[in-house]
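Input structure tokens:
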């Protein structure tokens, strides 16, 4: 069973697609969001959850006070689960987008975001991850506000994400078999 950890929807259950997803554990989400709240990038934030799966990461952000959350996934069962979860939780500012993560970030950014959560399948290769990260670092039509945080969740057996010029890793944490990488625009100032 997957649940929202904290915030206005804390304790509420989430539907998880029956195949093709690996939801972030509650323990990892709790630690991750504790850190993100310490950085001040959740409350009132504009958030993008790429490879959303059930939407657990983005919905956790919405429950904790994010103003706008886009749940992005290309798999039909994941999109349907995200839609049902968003509807059942009734959190304001949440929208579900059916698109591949790389195609979504290749498009126009619109208003820049404060937080990007990327939890690709553990077998995603470095090229696929690079296709998600590179557009986030572009200077024209920027995706990120100054001080934004980009989070990448991978298996501890996966290599470090291929950070493009314009994004700087500032922290890395391990939680059992899960590795979480934190990056920011190169001019950022977060401390480990």
């Amino acid at each position: 069973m997957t649940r929202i950890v904290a915030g206005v929807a804390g304790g509420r259950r989430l539907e998880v697609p029956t195949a093709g997803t690996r939801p972030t554990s509650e323990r990892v989400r709790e630690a991750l969001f504790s850190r993100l709240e310490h950085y001040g990038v959740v409350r009132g934030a504009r958030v993008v959850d790429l490879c959303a799966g059930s939407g657990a990461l983005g919905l956790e952000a919405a429950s904790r006070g994010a103003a706008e959350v886009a749940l992005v996934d290309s798999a039909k069962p994941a999109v349907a689960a995200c839609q049902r979860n968003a509807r059942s939780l009734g959190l304001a500012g949440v929208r579900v987008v059916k698109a591949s993560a790389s195609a979504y970030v290749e498009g126009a950014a619109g208003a820049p975001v404060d937080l990007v959560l990327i939890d690709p399948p553990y077998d995603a290769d470095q090229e696929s991850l690079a296709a998600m990260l590179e557009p986030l670092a572009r200077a024209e039509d920027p995706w990120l506000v100054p001080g934004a945080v980009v989070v990448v969740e991978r298996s501890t057996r996966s290599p470090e994400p291929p950070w493009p010029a314009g994004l700087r890793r500032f922290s890395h944490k391990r939680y059992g078999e899960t590795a979480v990488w934190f990056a920011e625009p190169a001019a950022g100032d977060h401390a480990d």
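Residues 167 and 185 are 5 Å apart (CA to CA). The chain is about 25% helix and 30% strand.
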